Amino acid sequence: MKKSIIILLTYFSLIAANIYSQQFQFGIESGIGTYQMSALKSTNSDIQKGIPFDTKLVSNFPAYFYYRPTVELVFKHFGIGLNYSFLSTGSRISGKDYSGEYNFDMLIHSNTPSIFGEYYLNPDNKFPISFYLNFGRYYTTLNIKEHFSLGDSTLTNNYENYKAQNFYTEPGMKIYYPYKSFRIGFDIGYALQFSGKGFYLNNNINQKMADSKIPNWSGFRIGISLIYNLK
Amino acid sequence: MNKQFKYFIFLLIICIIYSCEYEPVEIYQRKVNLNVNAPTIQILDMPLSGDTVYFYRDFYLNNQYYSPTFRFSSSDQKIRNIQFQIDSKNITTFTTGDTGVYGCYLYSLSNGVHNLISNIYTESGTGSIADKVGGEGYKFTREWTIIVNNDSIPPIKTSIINGFLKLSWPKYPTNNFSKFIFDKYYPWVYRYLSKPEFVDSAYVGEGGGYSISVMYNNNQWDYYTNNTIPSEIPKIKLDTVLGKNIITWNKCKYYSAVDTFELFLGDISEKNFIKITQDPNDTTAIYSTIPIGQSHVVTLIIIPKLNKNVFRSNMGYFASHPIDLP
User: Fold this and answer.
1) Chain A interface includes B13 (CB < 8 A)
2) Residues 6+ apart with CB under 8 A from A83
């Protein structure tokens, strides 16, 4: 069944390419992403409660840049392509004075390969507008670093590395400004993570993180892109 | 085209350069208070008063261990912990909740001199990380010398001084000593004494039991020693010379305490006195005839000076063992 669908899609794509194949584009997009990370925020809260001196959550998974190189085959009204996104954010619980220092860092990033489709409303307009839909998978890596020192002595220096994989989809829209062989785009979308597999220890898939915590990359994506038209 | 492509690659490199993973850099600088004074430690309750503490048979009397408890208070900074050491070795310490009471177990200390140290650890009060995790603070040390003596009961010695019984016993060898408690069982005498001696001006040789206890500076007291003295009431004897009965007795050792010696025939209530004297050197009585129908028993009774009227009215005098006349 799946094989039949793939064959059909390939067939129609080739037909469309023969009829409308116009451009092959590649480009890079960058922007700001917001990330929910509610489970990890909860972990921060628990950690902070257990520390016997006052600390501050100086960073709590803030919105941060993402980077997304893209290749796309563009027809008249349709486009299809592949992209790869790199997302990252993190948190830090911090406390420092003359006697010592404590840091609890959670640094999380995702390598995210995706396929996407795009529909151009008005491809001949001066400012073409399109709607797109990404579908891909987050390959998440979480690095937890805990460092505690008193004076010159390091009392704690722990490091743990976790992994998780989850699927997502991202609908959104773009507006372009063509300039010679380039197109400058502005886009806005919302990424929705929809599978909830939890973290596991990097070298042992059977060793899950306590409370089966999961990364949650869901959030808005607002970016600009620079696209080069090879044709 | 070629120029445009180079331009695009250049922009791509710029983007990649800025494609850095998120890294938090902010540090929270905590506020601390460096203007704090050292705390003042007050010892509210301390069973070990003085620098030298003498334990006399306590380990025997208290099931092989002694558990003094202390109560400390700190002026500002909290007391974090108290550690007790005996002869430089940590010993079991206990605390009773948040009342500030700490104690230790002194197990079966051997005879001799021991060194007890209490180390009191307080917070520093700065509020720093080190302060909060116990890595910074003040340490106060208090030290005691403990002398343990689990040997037998020290003796109470008796002697006679100017016709009175004098009791003496070893000094209590510690400076937490306040006074002795002298307890004579009968007739009952209860005295607080600063010196390890007592002249019993009421004793006429009747024998009896004595107990000495020790009161410490903190008004706690403890048993020290005791002694029982056998009766030394003069014995009477009878000699018959030329048809006369000569009754003699040995001189009372404790003559200064005696008011009257009374020698009588039969029951004292009949008042058949043979001799009444207040001279302790007069120890002879002559008795020629024995009334028909009367008892042939002679008894010497000794009336002490102290409270003599009470003694007489209560018939609480001390008497020699009676002898039968022939």
Assistant:
1) no
2) A29, A68, A69, A70, A71, A113, A114, A115, A116, A134, A136
